[in-house]
Amino acid sequence: MYIAIFGSLMVFTAITVAVAFLNLGALNFPVAISIAIVKATLVILFFMHLKYSSRLTKLVCGSAFFFLFVLFGLTMSDYLSRGWFTAPNGTTGAGTLVNIGPPPPPAPEREAPAESSPAPAH
User: Fold this and answer.
1) Residue 12 pLDDT more than 90?
2) Contacts of 42 (CB under 8 A, 6+ apart)
3) Which of 8, 63, 86, 113 is most buried when burial is the number of CB atoms within 10 A of its CB?
4) Are 19 and 32 contacting, i.e. CB atoms less than 8 angstroms apart?
5) pLDDT tens across 13-64, in order?
6) Considering only CA atoms, which of 58, 62, 17, 61 is closest in space to residue 35?
7) Which residues contact 13 (CB under 8 A, 6 or more apart)?
8) 96 pLDDT exceeds 60?
9) Does residue 11 register a pLDDT over 60?
10) Contacts of 15 (CB under 8 A, 6+ apart)
11) DSSP assignment, residue 86?
12) Is the dihedral of CA 99, 105, 106, 111 positive or negative?
């Protein structure tokens, strides 16, 4: 059994390397994460003996993954709700301050101070 699981992990690793050299566009990440999830599931079930463990151990493992997904969900809700804008100087980031709307009116020009008579030369 262990040799079959090890062989399947090696096959999935070869698939991961092969897919890394393909340009799948927007599917690059979903394909890579799907392969990684399958490999992690095999490791958890067989090498960590979760498949043959008690129901309490399975419950603890399942609740750990549930809270992991909750934390990822909270993190992603914060990350995706931020306003990401491109600043006038070209940077994009969370700290970028961008005003949406019409540009502010130009500042009034200052009047030059009245010139006084030059000081007498000695």
Assistant:
1) yes
2) 5, 8, 9, 12
3) 8
4) yes
5) 999 999 999 998 888 888 999 999 999 999 999 999 999 999 999 999 999 9
6) 17
7) 39
8) no
9) yes
10) 35
11) E
12) negative
Q: How much is the pLDDT for 117?
A: 59
Q: How far is CA 36 from the centre of its chain?
A: 17
Instruction: Give the list of residues 6+ apart from residue 43 with CB closer than 8 angstroms, or none.
Output: 9
- Going by C-alpha positions, the residue among 51, 38, 40, 36 that lies closest to residue 1 is 51
Residue 36 to residue 30: CA distance in whole angstroms: 10
Rounded to the nearest integer, the mean pLDDT of the chain is: 83
And the tokens for 51? 């498949």
- Which residue has 């390397």 as its token pair? 17
Give residue 101's region: left, alpha or beta (phi > 0; psi -120 to 50). left
For tokens 């997904």, the residue is: 69
How does DSSP assign 8-52, residue by residue? HHHHHHHHHHHHHTS--GGGHHHHHHHHHHHHHHHIIIIIS--TT
Residue-level pLDDT at 93: 59
